[in-house]
Amino acid sequence: MSSLPPIDFVQVFSLFLVLLFSLTVHEAAHAWTADRLGDPTARLLGRVSLNPAVHVDPIGTIVFPLVALLTNLPIIGWAKPVPVNPARLHPHWRQRFMLIAAAGPISNVVLATLAAIALRVSGIGDLPGAILELSVRINVLLAVFNMVPVPPLDGGNVLAGMLTGPMAEAFDRLRPYGFLILYGLMFTGMLYTLISPPAGVLLSVLLG
User: Fold this and answer.
1) CA torsion through residues 15, 21, 23, 25, sign
2) Do 78 and 146 contact (CB within 8 A), yes or no?
3) What is the mean pLDDT of residues 123-130?
4) CB of 38 within 8 A of CB of 158?
5) How far is it, in rounded angstroms, from Cα 138 to Cα 23?
6) DSSP state of 52
7) At what angle do helices 93-122 and 9-36 cross, to 10 degrees?
8) R_g (Cα) of the chain, nearest Å
């Protein structure tokens, strides 16, 4: 009779903290960019902040990630979406909305790069080194995953900002079905096929 491997609670706690911080920076980047581009909605709600409490979604930020970490399943997690009012982004609201969407993944690439630099420069090992490497890997995966061009992911909003005319209208009509499309990609394995190559390239550059 086989038994489950023992849970390394230090590793689980470290992973959770890295994920929480990475999601916090991601959402704060959305909020800060929206405010800079003319929409103060998120700032007025206190979302331009590195306080995780203002970004936490109880299910997506706490329950799902912890269950995944404790059961050795792939990590699934999200934070509260940053509200954006397109009416405050005129003129060229689509382009500004695209920049706001891109800010989140860009922030994760910046975090991954900083962690990789710190890892190389310091040369530290053991737990601090492991946490830095986790930060690189988690932020790369967050950035690449969120850039998949399916709404409501950031990549879907970036693509929406690039489209015009009938193509933009057709893409907007797909938005209510975005979660279904995303789940379909997950269950068929296509999501891994999409994110694995770019994530592998980024990780090889940062950790190679």
Assistant:
1) negative
2) no
3) 78
4) no
5) 10
6) G
7) 140
8) 18
**For the chain, give me the number of helices (H) and strands (E)?**
9, 0
Distance CA 163, CA 166 (A): 9
Average pLDDT over residues 109-118: 97
Q: What angle is formed at CA 102 by the lines to CA 160 and CA 90, rounded to 5 degrees?
A: 60
Q: Contact, 31 vs 47, CB < 8 A?
A: yes
DSSP category for residue 8: -
Whose structure tokens read 């015009």?
Answer: 164
Q: For 129-138, how does the pLDDT look when each residue is reduced to its tens digit (9 = 90+)?
A: 888 999 999 9
pLDDT at 74 over 80: no
| d(C-alpha 114, C-alpha 106), whole Å | 12
Task: Return the structure tokens found at 17.
Answer: 């903290």
pTM: 0.90
User: What's the mean per-residue pLDDT of the chain?
Assistant: 89
Q: pLDDT tens digits, residue range 21-44? A: 999 999 999 999 999 999 999 999
